[in-house]
Design a protein that fits this description.
By secondary structure, the protein is an alpha/beta fold. The chain has eight helices and seven strands, in the order E-H-E-E-E-H-H-E-H-E-E-H-H-H-H. Helix content is 34%, strand content 13%. Helix 1 crosses helix 8.
Length: 251
């Protein structure tokens, strides 16, 4: 369905992003878009705020939380809440944390895991409850302990695959959203994507994220978002948001 509206650029915050992928997609649509992360922007853009994003959550028309830290929130990590790992993954922790963890007792390590869960849930909670009419959070499926710690928790509104939007990859991605509708896939079925991309009938999406070799940059590279999904986020959610704002002005 074609949405009709007067174009007024949105003020858009892309939280927890340093690659600029989603930010630049909104900029390409003509919006006043900014990214924010504790890491420096990969491209050196002057539209990046290097800080704790919780200091910058007011004054936006749309907030998209692109890649919040999810290690302790997602289902794949729930097992460490009953039996802590013997060592920390250096991709997800500081060198000081890794060193301190190595000296801890089993009980202290388990307490550390729960403390990290609390930190991650608090961040997600603050972002999900940001003072903005339209908020979208991207994350893997959460376990019950994480859900219980998030204020006003709601289940994700949709689950997508990158190939549904033209990125020939497989990585199940979930969106929590309020104020905007779920994204409409360009290619709902795998055969649709194959035909659109000119691929053989037996072609399978690549597993780039899961196949990355270990290394100091692995965690950073795994968090890079999908350009085609980002373009549709900017196009669809940008249009929805502008329509809502124009309708409110006309009411």
């Amino acid at each position: 369905m074609q949405l009709e509206f007067d174009f007024t650029p949105l003020k858009v915050l892309i939280a927890c992003e340093y690659s600029g992928t989603v930010r630049d997609a909104f900029l390409a649509e003509g919006h006043d878009a900014w990214s924010c992360d504790i890491l420096a922007d990969d491209t050196g853009s002057n539209r990046h705020i290097r800080d704790d994003v919780r200091n910058h959550l007011t004054g936006w028309d749309l907030i998209i939380v692109a890649h919040p830290p999810c290690t302790r929130l997602c289902n794949s990590g729930v097992r460490w809440l009953t039996e802590a790992p013997k060592r920390l993954n250096p991709e997800h922790h500081t060198a000081a944390e890794v060193a301190a963890y190595a000296r801890m007792t089993d009980a202290q390590r388990l307490a550390f895991m729960w403390a990290k869960l609390d930190e991650g849930a608090a961040l997600f909670s603050d972002l999900w409850n940001a003072p903005c009419d339209r908020v979208v959070c991207e994350n893997p499926v959460m376990h019950r302990h994480a859900k219980a710690r998030i204020r006003n928790y709601a289940e994700p509104v949709q689950s997508i695959q990158p190939w549904q939007f033209g990125d020939w990859e497989t990585k199940r991605t979930h969106f929590w959203a309020r104020g905007v509708a779920p994204l409409a896939p360009l290619y709902p079925k795998l055969d649709d994507a194959r035909r659109a991309l000119g691929l053989p009938a037996d072609a399978k999406p690549v597993t780039r994220v899961h196949s990355m070799a270990p290394g100091p940059e692995r965690s950073k590279e795994r968090s890079r978002f999908f350009p085609s999904v980002a373009r549709e986020m900017a196009r669809q959610w940008g249009a929805q948001s502008m329509q809502q704002i124009n309708q409110a002005k006309a009411a």
